[in-house]
Amino acid sequence: MPRATGWEAVTVVDQLLYPWSVTWLPTGELLITEKFGHLRLVRNGVLAPDQISGLSEIRSGESSLLMDVSLHPRFVENRWVYLTYGTGTDNLSATRLARGRLSEDLTTITDFTLLHIVKPAKPGFAHFGSRLLWLPDGSLLLALGDGGNPPLRLDGQLMREQAQKLDSQLGKILRLRDDGTVPPDNPFVGRTGVDPFIWTCGHRNIQGLARDPASGRIWANEHGSRGGDELNLLTAGGNYGWPRATYSIEYTFGIISRATSLPDTVDPLVVWTPAQAPSGLLFYTGDKFPQWRGDLFSGALKRKEVRHLDLDSEGRVVGQQSLSIGERVRDVRQGPDGFIYVLTDAQNGRLLRLQPAPSGQ
Predict the structure, then answer these.
(1) Separation CA 34–CA 355 (nearest Å)
(2) Using only C-alpha atoms, what is the Rg of the chain?
(3) Tens digit of pLDDT for each residue in 79-105?
(4) CB atoms within 10 A of CB 252
(5) In what order do the strands lie in the sheet with 340-344?
(6) Alpha-carbon distance 217 to 10, whole Å?
(7) 69 near 22, Cβ under 8 Å?
(8) For residues 340 and 333, is the Cβ–Cβ distance under 8 A?
Protein backbone atom coordinates (compact mmCIF):
# COMPACT_ATOMS: atom_id res chain seq x y z
CA MET A 1 0.00 0.00 0.00
CA PRO A 2 1.51 3.39 -0.97
CA ARG A 3 2.17 5.73 1.94
CA ALA A 4 0.88 9.30 1.87
CA THR A 5 3.51 11.99 2.30
CA GLY A 6 3.54 15.67 3.18
CA TRP A 7 1.75 15.43 6.52
CA GLU A 8 2.57 15.13 10.20
CA ALA A 9 0.61 14.29 13.37
CA VAL A 10 0.60 16.62 16.38
CA THR A 11 -0.96 15.70 19.75
CA VAL A 12 -3.73 18.11 20.77
CA VAL A 13 -4.71 16.36 24.03
CA ASP A 14 -3.98 13.00 25.65
CA GLN A 15 -5.11 11.15 28.78
CA LEU A 16 -8.44 10.26 27.18
CA LEU A 17 -9.93 6.96 28.40
CA TYR A 18 -10.84 5.02 25.26
CA PRO A 19 -12.37 7.95 23.35
CA TRP A 20 -14.98 7.16 20.71
CA SER A 21 -16.10 10.38 18.99
CA VAL A 22 -15.36 14.10 18.78
CA THR A 23 -17.30 17.16 17.64
CA TRP A 24 -16.77 20.93 17.74
CA LEU A 25 -18.94 23.55 19.39
CA PRO A 26 -19.61 26.77 17.43
CA THR A 27 -17.44 28.64 19.96
CA GLY A 28 -14.42 26.42 19.23
CA GLU A 29 -14.47 24.01 22.17
CA LEU A 30 -14.55 20.25 21.54
CA LEU A 31 -16.76 17.53 22.99
CA ILE A 32 -15.25 14.04 23.20
CA THR A 33 -17.02 10.86 24.30
CA GLU A 34 -15.20 8.20 26.30
CA LYS A 35 -16.72 4.76 25.96
CA PHE A 36 -17.24 4.17 29.70
CA GLY A 37 -19.87 6.91 29.81
CA HIS A 38 -17.94 10.18 30.07
CA LEU A 39 -18.41 13.33 27.98
CA ARG A 40 -15.29 15.50 28.07
CA LEU A 41 -14.63 19.14 27.15
CA VAL A 42 -11.50 20.49 25.47
CA ARG A 43 -11.00 24.26 25.61
CA ASN A 44 -8.00 26.07 24.10
CA GLY A 45 -6.17 22.77 23.66
CA VAL A 46 -6.63 21.74 27.31
CA LEU A 47 -8.73 18.80 28.53
CA ALA A 48 -11.03 19.99 31.32
CA PRO A 49 -10.34 17.98 34.49
CA ASP A 50 -14.01 17.27 35.20
CA GLN A 51 -16.35 15.38 32.91
CA ILE A 52 -19.57 17.06 31.81
CA SER A 53 -22.30 16.07 34.27
CA GLY A 54 -25.85 14.93 33.63
CA LEU A 55 -25.24 11.55 31.98
CA SER A 56 -25.83 9.28 34.97
CA GLU A 57 -28.65 7.53 33.09
CA ILE A 58 -26.16 6.28 30.50
CA ARG A 59 -24.08 4.64 33.23
CA SER A 60 -27.05 3.24 35.17
CA GLY A 61 -27.07 -0.21 33.53
CA GLU A 62 -24.95 -3.20 34.48
CA SER A 63 -22.88 -2.44 31.39
CA SER A 64 -22.77 0.73 29.31
CA LEU A 65 -20.89 2.00 26.29
CA LEU A 66 -21.03 5.66 25.22
CA MET A 67 -20.33 6.10 21.52
CA ASP A 68 -21.19 8.89 19.09
CA VAL A 69 -21.81 12.57 19.83
CA SER A 70 -23.35 15.05 17.40
CA LEU A 71 -24.80 18.55 17.65
CA HIS A 72 -28.27 19.40 16.41
CA PRO A 73 -27.99 21.46 13.18
CA ARG A 74 -29.62 24.35 15.09
CA PHE A 75 -27.51 23.88 18.22
CA VAL A 76 -26.97 27.63 18.62
CA GLU A 77 -30.74 28.00 19.09
CA ASN A 78 -31.64 24.86 21.06
CA ARG A 79 -28.38 23.56 22.68
CA TRP A 80 -29.30 19.93 21.84
CA VAL A 81 -26.45 17.39 21.95
CA TYR A 82 -27.23 13.90 20.57
CA LEU A 83 -25.58 10.78 21.99
CA THR A 84 -25.65 7.07 21.17
CA TYR A 85 -24.93 4.43 23.76
CA GLY A 86 -25.31 0.74 24.42
CA THR A 87 -26.70 -0.37 27.73
CA GLY A 88 -27.97 -3.54 29.35
CA THR A 89 -26.28 -6.77 30.39
CA ASP A 90 -24.23 -9.49 28.74
CA ASN A 91 -27.53 -11.34 28.25
CA LEU A 92 -29.70 -8.51 26.90
CA SER A 93 -28.62 -5.14 25.50
CA ALA A 94 -29.69 -2.45 23.04
CA THR A 95 -28.39 0.67 21.32
CA ARG A 96 -30.09 3.87 22.45
CA LEU A 97 -30.29 7.38 21.03
CA ALA A 98 -30.75 10.29 23.44
CA ARG A 99 -30.36 14.03 23.52
CA GLY A 100 -29.80 16.68 26.18
CA ARG A 101 -29.17 20.40 26.38
CA LEU A 102 -25.63 21.59 27.04
CA SER A 103 -25.50 24.38 29.61
CA GLU A 104 -24.09 27.75 28.57
CA ASP A 105 -21.09 27.23 30.87
CA LEU A 106 -20.43 23.86 29.14
CA THR A 107 -20.43 21.86 32.38
CA THR A 108 -23.80 20.07 32.42
CA ILE A 109 -26.28 18.20 30.25
CA THR A 110 -29.89 18.93 31.23
CA ASP A 111 -33.26 17.73 29.89
CA PHE A 112 -31.74 14.34 29.08
CA THR A 113 -34.32 12.60 26.88
CA LEU A 114 -34.29 9.08 25.48
CA LEU A 115 -35.44 9.29 21.85
CA HIS A 116 -35.10 5.73 20.56
CA ILE A 117 -34.33 2.21 21.78
CA VAL A 118 -33.24 -0.11 18.99
CA LYS A 119 -35.45 -3.19 18.62
CA PRO A 120 -35.21 -6.04 19.19
CA ALA A 121 -32.96 -6.17 22.24
CA LYS A 122 -30.11 -8.58 21.65
CA PRO A 123 -28.04 -11.07 23.60
CA GLY A 124 -24.40 -10.16 24.14
CA PHE A 125 -22.73 -6.77 24.23
CA ALA A 126 -21.26 -6.20 20.77
CA HIS A 127 -21.98 -4.87 17.26
CA PHE A 128 -23.78 -1.73 18.38
CA GLY A 129 -22.80 0.31 15.31
CA SER A 130 -24.00 3.74 16.51
CA ARG A 131 -22.56 6.28 14.07
CA LEU A 132 -24.73 9.38 13.46
CA LEU A 133 -25.06 11.62 10.40
CA TRP A 134 -27.36 14.63 9.91
CA LEU A 135 -29.00 15.19 6.52
CA PRO A 136 -29.81 18.62 5.03
CA ASP A 137 -33.54 18.21 5.74
CA GLY A 138 -32.85 17.94 9.48
CA SER A 139 -33.34 14.17 9.68
CA LEU A 140 -30.76 11.94 11.33
CA LEU A 141 -29.18 8.67 10.20
CA LEU A 142 -28.33 6.11 12.89
CA ALA A 143 -26.15 3.19 11.77
CA LEU A 144 -26.56 -0.11 13.64
CA GLY A 145 -24.76 -3.43 13.84
CA ASP A 146 -26.33 -6.86 13.46
CA GLY A 147 -26.05 -7.72 17.15
CA GLY A 148 -23.03 -10.00 17.38
CA ASN A 149 -21.05 -13.02 16.22
CA PRO A 150 -21.83 -16.74 16.40
CA PRO A 151 -22.85 -18.53 18.53
CA LEU A 152 -25.19 -15.68 19.61
CA ARG A 153 -28.74 -16.34 18.47
CA LEU A 154 -32.13 -14.67 18.55
CA ASP A 155 -35.36 -16.59 17.93
CA GLY A 156 -33.30 -19.65 17.03
CA GLN A 157 -31.24 -17.95 14.29
CA LEU A 158 -27.73 -16.52 14.30
CA MET A 159 -27.72 -12.81 15.07
CA ARG A 160 -26.38 -11.98 11.60
CA GLU A 161 -29.73 -13.00 10.07
CA GLN A 162 -31.28 -9.90 11.69
CA ALA A 163 -29.60 -7.76 9.01
CA GLN A 164 -32.01 -9.14 6.38
CA LYS A 165 -35.15 -9.08 8.53
CA LEU A 166 -37.19 -5.98 7.72
CA ASP A 167 -39.11 -6.15 11.00
CA SER A 168 -35.81 -5.81 12.91
CA GLN A 169 -33.68 -2.67 13.28
CA LEU A 170 -30.43 -4.64 13.73
CA GLY A 171 -27.97 -4.52 10.84
CA LYS A 172 -29.68 -1.42 9.44
CA ILE A 173 -29.31 2.30 9.01
CA LEU A 174 -32.31 4.07 10.51
CA ARG A 175 -33.55 7.52 9.57
CA LEU A 176 -35.31 9.55 12.25
CA ARG A 177 -36.63 13.04 12.73
CA ASP A 178 -34.83 15.12 15.33
CA ASP A 179 -37.44 14.22 17.96
CA GLY A 180 -37.00 10.48 17.34
CA THR A 181 -40.15 9.96 15.27
CA VAL A 182 -40.43 8.41 11.80
CA PRO A 183 -40.01 10.67 8.74
CA PRO A 184 -43.06 10.07 6.52
CA ASP A 185 -40.88 9.75 3.39
CA ASN A 186 -38.71 6.88 4.66
CA PRO A 187 -38.42 4.19 1.95
CA PHE A 188 -40.41 1.48 3.76
CA VAL A 189 -43.14 3.57 5.37
CA GLY A 190 -46.55 1.97 4.87
CA ARG A 191 -45.29 -1.53 4.08
CA THR A 192 -46.93 -4.19 6.22
CA GLY A 193 -44.52 -5.99 8.53
CA VAL A 194 -41.61 -3.65 7.76
CA ASP A 195 -40.09 -1.33 10.34
CA PRO A 196 -40.73 2.24 9.13
CA PHE A 197 -37.46 3.61 10.57
CA ILE A 198 -35.32 1.51 8.19
CA TRP A 199 -33.37 3.47 5.58
CA THR A 200 -30.98 0.71 4.40
CA CYS A 201 -30.43 -2.94 5.37
CA GLY A 202 -27.91 -5.75 5.07
CA HIS A 203 -25.11 -4.35 7.25
CA ARG A 204 -22.83 -6.19 9.67
CA ASN A 205 -21.40 -3.42 11.83
CA ILE A 206 -21.11 0.10 10.40
CA GLN A 207 -18.53 2.32 12.11
CA GLY A 208 -18.31 5.32 9.77
CA LEU A 209 -20.71 7.57 7.84
CA ALA A 210 -19.74 10.51 5.63
CA ARG A 211 -21.54 12.82 3.20
CA ASP A 212 -20.40 15.01 0.32
CA PRO A 213 -22.30 18.30 0.84
CA ALA A 214 -22.06 19.17 -2.86
CA SER A 215 -23.31 15.96 -4.48
CA GLY A 216 -25.26 14.58 -1.52
CA ARG A 217 -23.53 11.20 -1.80
CA ILE A 218 -23.28 9.23 1.44
CA TRP A 219 -20.74 6.50 2.18
CA ALA A 220 -20.48 3.97 5.01
CA ASN A 221 -17.69 1.67 6.08
CA GLU A 222 -18.32 -1.51 8.02
CA HIS A 223 -16.56 -4.44 9.62
CA GLY A 224 -16.51 -7.84 8.01
CA SER A 225 -15.66 -10.88 10.10
CA ARG A 226 -12.42 -12.48 8.89
CA GLY A 227 -11.75 -10.13 5.99
CA GLY A 228 -14.48 -8.61 3.89
CA ASP A 229 -14.53 -5.13 5.44
CA GLU A 230 -16.49 -2.83 3.13
CA LEU A 231 -16.91 0.70 1.88
CA ASN A 232 -20.39 1.29 0.46
CA LEU A 233 -22.11 4.10 -1.42
CA LEU A 234 -25.55 4.37 0.13
CA THR A 235 -28.97 4.71 -1.47
CA ALA A 236 -32.24 4.90 0.45
CA GLY A 237 -33.89 1.48 0.48
CA GLY A 238 -30.71 -0.34 -0.55
CA ASN A 239 -29.81 -3.85 0.62
CA TYR A 240 -26.06 -4.17 1.18
CA GLY A 241 -26.00 -7.93 1.28
CA TRP A 242 -24.89 -9.11 4.71
CA PRO A 243 -24.92 -12.05 5.31
CA ARG A 244 -26.41 -13.31 2.01
CA ALA A 245 -23.68 -11.73 -0.12
CA THR A 246 -20.29 -11.11 1.46
CA TYR A 247 -16.54 -11.46 0.98
CA SER A 248 -16.20 -12.35 4.68
CA ILE A 249 -15.54 -15.82 6.03
CA GLU A 250 -16.06 -17.14 9.54
CA TYR A 251 -13.44 -16.46 12.19
CA THR A 252 -13.10 -20.27 12.17
CA PHE A 253 -12.39 -20.08 8.37
CA GLY A 254 -15.77 -21.57 7.46
CA ILE A 255 -17.98 -20.23 4.66
CA ILE A 256 -20.64 -17.63 5.49
CA SER A 257 -22.06 -17.35 1.96
CA ARG A 258 -20.87 -18.57 -1.42
CA ALA A 259 -22.27 -15.40 -2.99
CA THR A 260 -20.38 -12.11 -3.11
CA SER A 261 -23.04 -10.39 -5.23
CA LEU A 262 -26.75 -10.92 -5.79
CA PRO A 263 -29.26 -9.26 -8.14
CA ASP A 264 -31.12 -7.57 -5.28
CA THR A 265 -28.09 -6.38 -3.29
CA VAL A 266 -25.70 -3.45 -3.72
CA ASP A 267 -22.04 -4.33 -4.27
CA PRO A 268 -19.40 -2.61 -2.13
CA LEU A 269 -17.12 0.01 -3.67
CA VAL A 270 -14.12 -1.43 -1.83
CA VAL A 271 -13.50 -4.71 -0.01
CA TRP A 272 -10.61 -4.93 2.44
CA THR A 273 -9.08 -8.36 3.02
CA PRO A 274 -7.23 -8.85 5.36
CA ALA A 275 -9.52 -6.88 7.62
CA GLN A 276 -8.72 -3.28 8.57
CA ALA A 277 -11.47 -2.91 11.20
CA PRO A 278 -12.62 0.44 9.74
CA SER A 279 -13.77 3.18 12.09
CA GLY A 280 -14.60 6.87 11.62
CA LEU A 281 -15.15 8.10 8.06
CA LEU A 282 -14.54 11.62 6.74
CA PHE A 283 -15.33 13.37 3.45
CA TYR A 284 -12.70 16.11 3.25
CA THR A 285 -13.73 19.63 2.15
CA GLY A 286 -10.99 21.68 3.81
CA ASP A 287 -8.24 23.90 2.44
CA LYS A 288 -5.23 22.65 4.44
CA PHE A 289 -4.73 19.66 2.12
CA PRO A 290 -5.99 20.92 -1.26
CA GLN A 291 -4.68 17.80 -3.01
CA TRP A 292 -7.09 15.71 -0.92
CA ARG A 293 -10.19 17.88 -1.18
CA GLY A 294 -13.16 15.77 -2.26
CA ASP A 295 -11.69 12.49 -1.00
CA LEU A 296 -12.54 10.11 1.84
CA PHE A 297 -10.48 9.24 4.91
CA SER A 298 -11.29 6.01 6.76
CA GLY A 299 -9.87 5.15 10.17
CA ALA A 300 -8.61 1.63 10.87
CA LEU A 301 -8.49 0.06 14.31
CA LYS A 302 -6.59 -3.07 13.33
CA ARG A 303 -4.27 -1.49 10.77
CA LYS A 304 -3.58 1.48 13.07
CA GLU A 305 -3.83 3.95 10.23
CA VAL A 306 -5.99 6.40 8.36
CA ARG A 307 -6.68 5.25 4.81
CA HIS A 308 -6.90 8.00 2.16
CA LEU A 309 -9.42 6.99 -0.52
CA ASP A 310 -9.05 8.91 -3.78
CA LEU A 311 -12.48 9.43 -5.36
CA ASP A 312 -13.47 10.01 -8.96
CA SER A 313 -16.32 12.27 -10.09
CA GLU A 314 -18.85 9.47 -9.50
CA GLY A 315 -17.82 8.90 -5.89
CA ARG A 316 -15.94 5.68 -6.61
CA VAL A 317 -12.51 4.80 -5.24
CA VAL A 318 -9.66 4.97 -7.77
CA GLY A 319 -6.69 4.85 -5.39
CA GLN A 320 -5.67 4.35 -1.77
CA GLN A 321 -2.85 5.58 0.45
CA SER A 322 -1.93 4.84 4.05
CA LEU A 323 -1.36 7.48 6.73
CA SER A 324 0.26 5.37 9.45
CA ILE A 325 -0.72 6.49 12.97
CA GLY A 326 0.79 3.58 14.90
CA GLU A 327 -2.20 3.39 17.26
CA ARG A 328 -5.73 2.07 16.91
CA VAL A 329 -7.76 4.78 15.16
CA ARG A 330 -11.32 5.20 16.44
CA ASP A 331 -12.56 8.41 14.77
CA VAL A 332 -11.55 10.73 11.93
CA ARG A 333 -13.01 14.23 11.63
CA GLN A 334 -12.42 17.52 9.86
CA GLY A 335 -12.10 20.45 12.22
CA PRO A 336 -13.54 23.89 11.48
CA ASP A 337 -9.93 24.98 10.83
CA GLY A 338 -9.66 22.57 7.87
CA PHE A 339 -7.20 20.19 9.54
CA ILE A 340 -7.90 16.46 9.92
CA TYR A 341 -8.32 15.17 13.48
CA VAL A 342 -7.89 11.60 14.69
CA LEU A 343 -8.93 9.92 17.96
CA THR A 344 -6.86 6.94 19.08
CA ASP A 345 -8.51 4.04 20.88
CA ALA A 346 -6.45 3.44 24.03
CA GLN A 347 -6.44 3.71 27.80
CA ASN A 348 -4.34 6.82 27.23
CA GLY A 349 -6.12 7.87 24.07
CA ARG A 350 -5.09 10.93 22.12
CA LEU A 351 -6.63 13.53 19.86
CA LEU A 352 -4.20 14.14 17.00
CA ARG A 353 -4.18 16.93 14.43
CA LEU A 354 -2.93 15.96 10.98
CA GLN A 355 -1.35 18.97 9.31
CA PRO A 356 0.94 19.64 6.36
CA ALA A 357 4.55 18.81 7.15
CA PRO A 358 7.10 21.64 6.99
CA SER A 359 8.76 22.05 3.60
CA GLY A 360 11.47 19.52 2.98
CA GLN A 361 10.01 16.83 5.23
Answers:
(1) 24
(2) 19
(3) 999 999 999 887 899 999 999 999 999
(4) 8
(5) 7-16, 349-356, 340-344, 329-334
(6) 31
(7) yes
(8) yes
d(CA 279, CA 342): 11
Under 8 Å between Cβ of 22 and 353: no
Indicate which residue of 127, 203, 223, 308 is catalytic: 127
Question: pTM score, two decimals?
Answer: 0.98
Task: Quick: pLDDT tens for 134-150.
Answer: 999 999 999 999 999 99
Question: 17-47 burial by CB neighbour count: b if 16+ within 10 A, else e?
Answer: ebbbbbbbbeeeebbbbbbebbbbbbeeeeb
Q: What is the mean pLDDT of residues 14-27?
A: 98
Residue from 99, 48, 96 nearest 75 by CA: 99
Q: Find out whether 110 and 94 touch, Cβ atoms under 8 Å.
A: no
Distance between start and end Cα atoms, the chain: 20
Longest dimension (CA), the chain: 63
The residues pairing with 86 across neighbouring beta strands, listed in sequence order, are 65, 95
Q: What are phi and psi of 118, to 5 degrees?
A: -70, 135
Backbone angles phi, psi at 82, to 5 degrees: -100, 140
Beta strands in 118-234 (DSSP E): 132-134, 140-143, 153-154, 157-158, 173-176, 198-200, 206-211, 218-222, 229-233
Report the candidate in 228, 229, 227, 222 with the shortest Cα–Cα distance to residue 200: 222
Name the phi and psi angles at 119, rounded to 5: -120, 145
Per-residue pLDDT of 191-227, as tens digits, reads 999 999 999 999 999 999 999 999 999 999 999 999 9
- Catalytic, 223? Answer no
Q: What is the pLDDT of residue 227?
A: 98
Q: In residues, how long is the chain?
A: 361
Residue 19, preceding bond cis, omega within 30 degrees?
A: no
